[in-house]
C-alpha cells in the first residue's frame, strides 16, 4: 500500500514527521451514531459518501458471506485519510457490519485493530484488507458513492466432546467391549465461571457429545440416575461433576469424559434350606423377601438342592422368611431364627448377601416294628436288624428279643427299608414285607405313622463235605494242576463217638461227598486202593484219619483233600548224578544229558574217571550190580563195574564223543547220555619283554612290547598295571602316557591263570625347568621334583613384594609362557597363588606359617613339578609406621574410574595389605585393590587403612559431579530482573495478574548444573497436582514456562528429565481474586434525579474499582417482581474501559426500584462469561438526589 511516507500510524493516534503538507481538518466534538448496534465515532467533517461491509464467519472459505454465515461482532475498524489521519472508528455489531457514512470525497484506507479480533475465531479469508497488519488498500470516495469489499472471513475455533456413560460391570475404570451404555442420562456443560453453555442426554448406546465448543476451560455435570451410582471416571467425581478440563481449538475430547456407573438394583440375596439330619437341600420350600416394614417384595421356591436366590434388588434393608414345611421343625440356622425369619440384610445396590442357611429336621414320632421267627412260630433272638433310608444311609440297628421282636421308634417322616441278615444255618421260608434276601420292601411313614406287622420266617439249614483223594507226585501234600484224583478210595464219615455216619467211594476224578449233614462235629478216614499209601498233609495223618471237623448249617467243606503216593520199588532207577568232581558239583544225569570233560580231566580222587550214581524215587542209592553199558564210540571211554554204588567211565587223552546206554540187571534201559572229551587249554609258560626299562619325559607316549610263550598258548591276553598312575598310565592295549617326573614300574601279567608277571622300570624326566627367581641375596633356584624350600613369614622378594616368583624354561634354557602353567597350593592359608600380572611370572603370596605342597601343571593337566614349601613364623614382624597418599582429594564426574595410590612405610613392613572403604558407596565404590568408580553426584570420603594391626588410616575427600544433574533452578524473566533460586521443594508465589518481562502470563524457570552451566530441557516432562491452575510449556529447549490464568490456588510441580528421573519438585502458588470475585468490586447505586447527570426518573449507576475490574466488563441489571417472579426489565448499564473513577450510567428509568417487593440481579459479562454480582431487594440500593462519593 502506498501511503505518505511522512505519516505513520501509531495505534489510533498519529505520528507526524517534520514536514506536513496541508493541514488536518478541524476536529469537531466526537459524536456517536448507531446502526445495527454498530458504533461509529466520527472525528472529521461530513459528506455524502460511505464505506460499509461485514466481518463474518466464512464457513466455506469463498470470501463471501453466504446464507447461514453469521457476522462477527466487536471488531474495531478505523477509517484514515490518505495523510494517515484518523477520520472515524466503528465497531462491528452482532451482525458483523460496520459503516462509515457522510464521507467527503477523497482518498481513504481502513485499518482493523487486530487486537480486537475474537479469540474464538481464526482469520480464514481476507478481502481488501491485509491480514498481517490490518491495513486495507487505498480507495476513493467520489460523488457520494458507497465503497464495499473490505472484510475478513473467520472460521470458528471450536472443539467437541464425545464420550460415554456406561455400566462399568467389572469395575476396572474403563469401558470394555461387553459393557453397555446407559441412555437418557442428562449432562450439562459449564464454562469456567460456572455458566451452563450446553445440555445433552446420552443415546441408546450411552454416547453423548457437545459440538461447537469454544476453546477454554470447562466442567461437566452428569445427573446420575436414581437406580445407578458412581463407579469410575478419570474426570467425573462421585457427585457427577468433573474437575476443570480444557478444550482446545478444533480439538475433540474423545472418551476422556467417560463416566462409569453401576446399577443400584443389582444386589442379590442367596441362601439354602437344608435337612439338619442329612445335610441335603429341601426342595420346593417357599422363601419370602420382605423390607423392614414387613412388605412382601419377592417370593421364591427352593431348587432341588435347597438353594434360593433373590436378584435385581435395590439399596435398602431386608429380611427373608422361610415358610417351614409341614412335618418339619427348626433345627439351626445361619442368620435365621426359629420362626424362619432372617436377620436384617443390608444391601448397597451392587452387593450380594450370601451364606444364609436354615436347617430343618423332620418330625420324629413314627414307628417301624416286626418279628423274626421259625415256621413253628418260635422267635429267633439276638439277631441284628438294621433300618436304612432309601439312599442306603444307616439309621439305627437293634437286636431281636427272646420272642424275635424288633422295633424302631421316634422316626421322622420318610422312606425306609429294614435289613435282617439271614443267620448261618437258616434259610428263607416266608415273610410279610420282606424279600428272600432279608431286605424289606420300601416303607413310607409320616412323622406320626406306625408300621408294626413286618415278619421274616426262617428255616434251619444242613451242611455237606466235598473233597478229593489225589496222587501226590511231588509229595508236598497239596494237589497241583498236574496231579490227578485217584478213584476207588473208600472214605468213611464218623461222629465224634466213633459211629459210622456215612461211607463214600471216590469217583473217576477222586471226588467224594457227604450231603445233608446235620450241623455237628465229625472226623473222616480214607482207605487207599492197593498200591498206594496215605501221605500225611494238613487234613489227614499218615493213617488216613482227619482231625475233628465242625459242619455248620448250609456249609460245604472242601478242604479235606487226602494225599496218596505210589508204593516205591527200591531197585527202580528214578534219577542219576555225576559225582566226585573236584569242584564238588553233582550235576544231574538225565536222559539225553551231555557230560563234557577235557582230556586232562581228573575226578576228586585224581582218577581219569567220570562217576555216575543212580537213585530210586525215595532218593535211595540203587545198587549197580549187574548193570551194563554200551557205547557208540567204544574207544573213547572204558566202563568200570567194580563198585556196586556207581558206574565209572575212564578216559584217555583221546578226544571225541560217545552215546552211553545203561541197562539194569534185568536188561531195562535206565539211562542214555553222551560223554564228550575235548582237548585241554595250552597255558603260557613265559612272557618276553621288548624292553625292561622306559625312559621318557613328561608328556611322552609309547607302547609296551611283550610276547607270550609258547606261541600256541590258548589265551595270550596280558594286563598292564602301573605302580603309580600319577607318573604314568597304561591302557588295556599297553599304550602308555607319562604325566609327571618320577620313577615307577609297570607290571605285565598273563590272564590265563598261569600267573606269570614281568616288570618294566619307568623313569620319567622333566620336560620343563622351574626356577624360583628374585630371591634376595640368592641366585635363581632350580626347583627339582619333591624339593623342600624353607622360608619364613617375613619373606619378601627383591621387589619387596611379599610373594615368591617362579618362571618356566625348556631344557635348552628358553623361557616359556608362564600363563601355560597353573600353580596350586594344598594350603592357601600358607601360600596362595596370585593372579597373572602380565610379566611372565607365576606368584605365590606368603600368607602365613605352615607347610604347603605346590603342584605345577601344564595346560594338558600333566604335573610338571611338585615341591614343598615350609613357611616358619618370622621372629620379628615389621609393622607399618606410616601411610602416604599420592592425593588426598579426588574430584571426578559420574562414571569416571581411577585407582587410589597409597604407600606403606617402612619398605620392609611385613604386611603391606590395605583396605579401602567408601563412606557412601552410592556416590563412589572402591574394590580391594583401590580401584574406584564414581556413581552419582555428591561428596563423601574413602578411608585407606593398614591391615597389619598398626591401624593407620588416611582419608581421601571425594567430590563427584554430574554434569547433567540439576543443582539449581532459577526463576527468570521477572520484570524486576531478579533471578531467585528455587530450592527443591520450594515455592514460587505470584499474583494472578503476574506478567513476566515479556508481558506474558508465564512463570519461567531454568536449570543449572553444579558448575552453573545451563542445562537443556529437551525431552523433559511436567506433571501437576492441579492441572487447571497453570499450563506447562515445554517447547523451549533451555527453559520451562508455566502459563497461569486469573485462577488462584496451589499446584505441586514435578519435573522429570528425558530419562524419566525426577529432577525438581516445587509448588506454584497463585494468589489474588478470581475474575468472578474481581467483577464484584463495584459500587451499585439506584438514584432518583441525580444532580448534574441529566437523568430523568430513577437511573442505575455502577462505579467499578479499576484496581480489580479489568476493561471490557459489561454490567447489566435484571429486575423481577417478588410476588410473581415476572421480569420487569433488563438493561445494560455499560462496559468498563479500565479507567480510574469510571462511571457507568444507564439513562433508562425504572420507578419500581424505589418500591419494596422488587429484586434486582446485577450481572457482569467478561470475555463471553456471565457472572452474578448481586441479587438483593432493589430498595436497599435506592436513594434520592444523592451524589456518588469515591472511596479511593
UniProtKB/TrEMBL annotation:
Residue ranges of every copy of the BIG2 domain listed in the record: 683-760, 785-868, 879-956
Cellular component terms per the entry's GO annotation: extracellular region
Membrane spanning residue stretches: none
Pfam families: Big_2 (PF02368), SdrD_B (PF17210)
Main location: secreted
Compartment list: Secreted
Keyword Signal in annotation: yes
Keywords on record: Secreted, Signal
Name of the featured protein: BIG2 domain-containing protein
Amino acid at each position: 500500500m502506498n501511503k505518505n511516507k511522512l505519516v505513520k500510524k501509531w495505534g489510533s493516534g498519529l505520528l507526524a514527521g517534520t514536514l506536513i503538507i496541508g493541514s488536518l481538518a478541524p476536529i469537531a466534538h466526537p459524536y456517536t451514531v448507531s446502526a445495527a448496534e454498530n458504533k461509529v465515532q466520527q472525528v472529521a467533517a461530513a459528506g455524502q459518501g460511505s464505506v460499509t461491509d461485514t466481518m463474518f464467519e466464512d464457513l466455506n472459505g469463498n470470501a463471501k458471506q453466504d446464507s447461514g454465515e453469521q457476522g462477527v461482532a466487536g471488531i474495531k475498524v478505523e477509517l484514515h485519510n490518505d495523510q494517515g489521519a484518523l477520520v472515524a472508528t466503528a465497531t462491528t455489531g452482532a451482525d458483523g457490519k460496520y459503516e462509515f457514512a457522510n464521507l467527503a470525497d477523497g482518498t481513504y484506507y481502513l485499518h482493523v485493530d487486530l487486537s480486537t479480533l475474537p479469540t474464538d475465531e481464526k482469520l480464514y479469508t481476507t478481502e481488501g484488507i491485509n491480514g498481517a497488519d490490518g491495513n486495507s488498500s487505498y480507495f476513493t470516495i467520489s460523488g457520494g458513492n458507497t465503497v464495499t469489499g473490505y472484510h475478513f472471513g473467520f472460521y470458528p475455533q471450536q472443539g467437541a466432546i464425545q464420550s460415554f456413560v456406561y455400566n462399568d460391570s467389572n469395575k476396572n475404570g474403563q469401558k470394555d467391549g461387553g459393557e453397555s451404555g446407559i441412555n437418557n442420562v442428562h449432562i450439562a456443560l459449564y464454562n469456567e465461571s460456572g455458566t451452563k453453555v450446553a445440555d445433552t442426554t446420552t443415546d441408546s448406546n450411552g454416547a453423548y457429545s457437545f459440538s461447537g465448543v469454544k476453546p477454554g476451560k470447562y466442567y461437566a455435570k452428569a445427573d446420575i440416575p436414581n437406580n445407578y451410582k458412581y463407579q469410575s471416571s478419570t474426570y467425573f467425581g462421585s457427585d457427577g461433576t468433573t474437575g476443570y478440563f480444557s478444550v482446545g481449538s478444533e480439538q475433540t475430547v474423545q472418551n476422556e469424559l467417560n463416566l462409569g456407573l453401576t446399577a443400584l438394583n443389582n444386589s442379590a440375596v442367596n441362601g439354602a434350606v437344608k435337612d439338619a439330619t442329612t445335610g441335603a437341600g429341601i426342595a420346593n420350600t417357599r422363601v419370602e423377601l420382605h423390607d423392614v416394614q414387613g412388605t412382601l417384595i419377592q417370593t421364591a421356591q427352593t431348587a432341588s438342592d435347597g438353594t434360593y436366590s433373590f436378584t435385581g434388588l435395590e439399596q435398602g434393608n431386608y429380611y427373608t422368611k422361610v415358610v417351614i414345611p409341614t412335618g418339619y421343625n427348626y433345627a439351626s440356622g445361619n442368620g435365621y431364627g426359629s420362626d424362619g425369619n432372617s436377620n436384617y440384610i443390608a444391601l448397597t445396590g451392587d452387593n450380594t448377601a450370601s451364606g444364609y442357611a436354615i436347617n430343618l429336621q423332620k418330625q420324629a414320632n413314627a414307628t417301624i416294628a416286626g418279628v423274626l421267627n421259625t415256621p413253628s412260630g418260635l422267635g429267633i433272638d439276638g439277631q441284628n436288624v438294621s433300618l436304612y433310608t432309601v439312599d442306603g444311609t444307616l439309621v439305627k440297628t437293634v437286636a431281636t428279643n427272646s420272642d424275635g421282636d424288633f422295633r424302631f421308634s421316634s422316626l421322622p417322616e420318610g422312606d425306609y427299608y429294614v435289613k435282617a441278615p439271614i443267620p448261618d444255618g437258616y434259610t428263607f421260608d416266608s415273610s410279610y414285607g420282606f424279600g428272600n434276601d432279608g431286605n424289606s420292601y420300601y416303607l413310607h411313614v409320616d412323622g406320626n405313622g406306625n408300621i408294626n406287622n413286618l415278619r421274616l420266617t426262617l428255616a434251619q439249614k444242613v451242611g455237606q463235605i466235598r473233597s478229593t483223594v489225589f496222587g501226590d507226585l511231588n509229595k508236598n501234600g497239596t494237589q497241583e494242576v498236574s496231579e490227578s484224583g485217584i478213584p476207588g478210595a473208600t472214605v468213611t464219615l464218623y461222629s465224634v463217638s466213633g459211629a459210622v455216619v456215612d461211607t463214600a467211594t471216590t469217583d473217576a476224578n477222586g471226588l467224594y461227598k457227604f450231603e445233608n449233614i446235620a450241623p455237628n462235629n465229625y472226623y473222616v478216614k480214607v482207605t487207599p486202593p492197593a498200591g498206594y499209601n496215605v501221605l500225611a498233609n494238613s487234613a489227614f495223618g499218615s493213617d488216613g484219619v482227619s482231625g475233628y471237623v465242625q459242619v455248620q448249617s448250609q456249609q460245604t467243606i472242601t478242604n479235606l483233600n487226602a494225599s496218596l503216593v505210589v508204593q516205591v520199588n527200591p531197585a527202580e532207577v528214578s534219577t542219576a548224578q555225576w559225582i566226585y568232581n573236584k569242584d564238588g558239583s553233582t550235576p544231574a544225569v538225565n536222559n539225553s544229558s551231555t557230560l563234557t570233560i577235557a582230556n586232562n580231566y581228573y575226578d576228586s580222587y585224581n582218577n581219569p574217571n567220570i562217576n555216575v550214581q543212580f537213585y530210586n524215587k525215595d532218593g535211595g542209592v540203587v545198587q549197580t550190580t549187574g548193570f551194563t553199558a554200551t557205547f557208540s564210540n567204544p574207544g573213547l571211554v572204558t566202563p568200570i563195574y567194580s563198585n556196586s554204588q556207581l558206574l565209572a567211565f575212564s578216559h584217555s587223552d583221546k578226544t571225541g564223543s560217545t552215546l552211553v546206554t545203561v541197562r539194569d540187571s534185568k536188561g531195562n534201559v535206565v539211562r542214555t547220555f553222551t560223554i564228550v572229551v575235548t582237548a585241554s587249554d595250552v597255558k603260557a609258560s613265559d612272557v618276553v619283554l621288548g624292553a625292561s626299562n622306559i625312559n621318557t619325559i613328561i608328556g611322552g607316549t609309547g607302547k609296551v612290547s611283550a610276547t607270550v610263550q609258547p606261541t600256541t598258548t590258548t589265551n595270550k591276553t596280558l594286563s598292564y598295571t602301573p605302580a603309580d598312575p600319577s607318573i604314568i598310565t597304561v591302557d588295556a592295549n599297553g599304550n602308555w602316557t607319562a604325566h609327571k617326573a618320577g620313577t615307577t614300574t609297570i607290571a605285565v601279567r598273563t590272564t590265563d591263570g598261569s600267573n606269570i608277571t614281568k616288570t618294566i622300570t619307568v623313569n620319567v624326566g622333566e620336560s620343563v625347568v622351574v626356577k624360583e627367581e628374585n630371591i634376595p641375596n640368592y641366585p635363581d633356584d632350580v626347583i627339582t621334583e619333591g624339593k623342600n624350600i624353607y622360608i619364613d613369614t617375613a619373606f619378601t622378594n627383591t621387589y619387596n613384594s611379599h610373594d615368591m616368583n617362579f618362571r618356566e624354561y625348556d631344557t635348552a634354557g628358553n623361557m616359556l609362557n608362564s600363563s601355560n602353567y597353573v600353580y596350586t597350593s594344598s594350603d592357601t592359608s600358607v601360600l596362595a597363588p596370585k593372579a597373572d600380572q602380565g610379566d611372565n611370572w607365576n606368584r605365590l603370596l606368603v600368607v602365613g606359617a605352615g607347610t604347603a605342597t605346590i603342584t605345577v601343571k601344564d595346560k594338558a593337566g600333566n604335573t610338571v613339578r611338585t615341591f614343598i614349601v615350609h613357611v616358619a613364623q618370622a621372629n620379628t614382624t615389621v609393622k607399618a609406621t606410616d601411610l602416604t597418599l599420592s592425593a588426598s582429594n579426588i574430584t571426578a564426574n559420574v562414571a569416571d574410574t581411577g585407582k587410589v595410590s597409597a604407600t606403606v612405610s617402612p619398605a620392609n613392613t611385613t604386611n603391606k595389605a590395605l583396605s579401602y572403604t567408601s563412606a557412601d558407596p552410592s556416590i563412589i565404590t572402591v574394590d580391594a585393590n583401590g580401584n574406584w568408580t564414581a556413581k552419582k553426584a555428591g561428596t563423601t570420603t574413602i578411608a585407606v587403612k593398614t591391615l597389619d594391626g598398626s591401624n593407620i588410616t588416611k582419608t581421601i575427600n571425594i567430590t563427584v559431579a554430574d554434569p547433567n544433574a540439576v543443582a539449581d533452578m532459577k526463576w527468570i524473566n521477572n520484570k524486576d530482573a531478579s533471578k531467585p533460586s528455587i530450592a527443591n521443594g520450594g515455592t514460587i508465589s505470584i499474583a494472578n495478574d503476574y506478567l513476566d518481562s515479556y508481558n506474558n502470563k508465564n512463570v519461567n524457570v531454568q536449570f543449572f548444573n553444579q558448575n552453573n552451566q545451563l542445562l537443556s530441557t529437551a525431552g523433559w516432562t511436567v506433571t501437576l497436582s492441579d492441572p487447571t491452575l497453570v499450563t506447562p510449556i515445554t517447547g523451549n529447549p533451555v527453559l520451562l514456562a508455566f502459563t497461569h490464568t486469573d485462577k488462584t490456588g496451589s499446584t505441586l510441580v514435578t519435573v522429570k528429565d528425558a530419562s524419566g528421573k525426577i529432577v525438581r519438585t516445587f509448588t506454584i502458588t497463585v494468589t489474588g481474586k478470581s475474575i468472578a470475585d474481581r467483577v464484584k468490586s463495584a459500587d451499585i447505586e439506584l438514584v432518583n434525579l441525580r444532580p448534574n447527570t441529566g437523568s430523568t426518573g430513577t437511573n442505575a449507576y455502577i462505579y467499578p474499582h479499576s484496581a480489580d475490574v479489568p476493561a471490557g466488563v459489561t454490567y447489566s441489571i435484571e429486575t423481577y417482581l417478588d410476588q410473581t417472579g415476572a421480569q420487569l426489565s433488563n438493561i445494560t448499564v455499560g462496559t468498563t474501559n479500565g479507567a480510574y473513577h469510571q462511571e457507568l450510567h444507564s439513562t433508562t428509568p425504572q420507578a419500581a426500584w424505589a418500591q419494596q417487593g422488587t429484586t434486582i440481579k446485577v450481572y457482569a459479562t467478561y470475555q463471553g462469561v456471565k457472572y452474578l454480582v448481586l441479587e438483593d431487594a432493589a430498595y436497599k440500593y435506592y436513594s434520592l438526589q444523592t451524589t456518588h462519593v469515591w472511596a479511593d
